[in-house]
Amino acid sequence: MKKAVLALADGLVFEGYSFGAEGEASGEVVFNTSMTGYQEILTDPSYKGQIVTMTYTQIGNYGVNNEDVESAKPYVEGFIVKEYLDFPSNWRATKSLNEYLRESGIVGIQGIDTRALTRHLRDFGAQPGVITTNVMNPESVVARARALPKMTGLDLVKEVTCSKAYTWDEGDWDLKTGYGGKASSRYLVVAYDYGIKRNILRLLTSAGCDVTVVPATMPAEEVLAMNPDGVFLSNGPGDPEPVTYAIESIKKILGKKPVFGICLGQQLLGLALGGRTYKLKFGHHGGNQPIMDLSTRKVEIAAENHGFAVDMETVKDQVVMTHVNLNDDTCEGFHHKTLPAFSVQYHPEASPGPHDSRYLFQRFIDMMEKHKG
């Protein structure tokens, strides 16, 4: 096996072996605590700009297939695992993870102590890093990691959003039939694409929505001219504060149409309300995060992928916090006190992850029904 090196900006170096594409990858190194779902993680546009470490020890054992994707291609910059298994065993698999990464140009490293790496990131925070199969003086790799830009201040939405509007008509997945078709539709939803995941679109369609996906840069006036019943604000990568074009559009839509935001969509909604966001030390990434619904005191196990959060002190006069993360007490959801607008920081479409939070899509439907003209 060809040797590979992972170097962090603070000087920590790991030596392992290459899998996937050969070459060099750079980005912010984070860890994901999911046991399964690596294909969905790889294709989540919210990971643009990041190298993902899987904390589960064995990755690749069920291969990849053509259905379990959240976008048209992988968006992670690099992939880190403890032990890659190159003999997939699953009736749905069409190729190995190694083949998939190689075809997609994604550089991976295996055979390192991912527990030590995760503990380091937990203690010292997510940080820039470099994976390279061009093994050389480790100090030079560390130097390249230190020269990388930090995530704060980066607008990565413009790198993942669609170039033009399109409609979506694929429904939720069923074990016997695969992805379903379009259900009878009662509501027109315009979904802003800041890096949208396909399963969000599938669940909106299955809930009875005609969905039109539009670029992140589309002005509010054009969206309102479509006369939608609701506007959806999607997930996406990077720092929300530089995405000023989205913030300005949301300001103009609030109060005119019902709004539902997920992940980056929550952060942008908070900024549109005049609030602030801040960077988390190592973010929330995984399919097993405990979230409490404050209205019912019920705990949901949810999927998450975000490195920034809304500072609730800056918006508490306008919104009510509805969900809280039980690991660190950060805000996981809020609704506006007077306007038809709500959001969650986690991923209720739950792919990968449990389905505890899918009721939120029905909440959006109910809000649109109440305000339907």
Name of the CATH first level of the largest domain: Alpha Beta
**CATH topology (fold) name of the largest domain:** Rossmann fold
Classification by helices and strands: alpha/beta
So, CATH architecture of the largest domain? 3-Layer(aba) Sandwich
Radius of gyration: 20 Å
- What is the average of the pLDDT values? 96
Give a count of the beta strands, DSSP E runs of length 2 or more. Answer: 21
Fourth-level CATH superfamily of the largest domain:
Class I glutamine amidotransferase (GATase) domain
Spatial strand order of the main sheet: 10-14-13-15-16-21-20-19-17-18
Strand content: 25-35%
How many strands, what sense, and barrel or not for the largest sheet? 10 strands, mixed
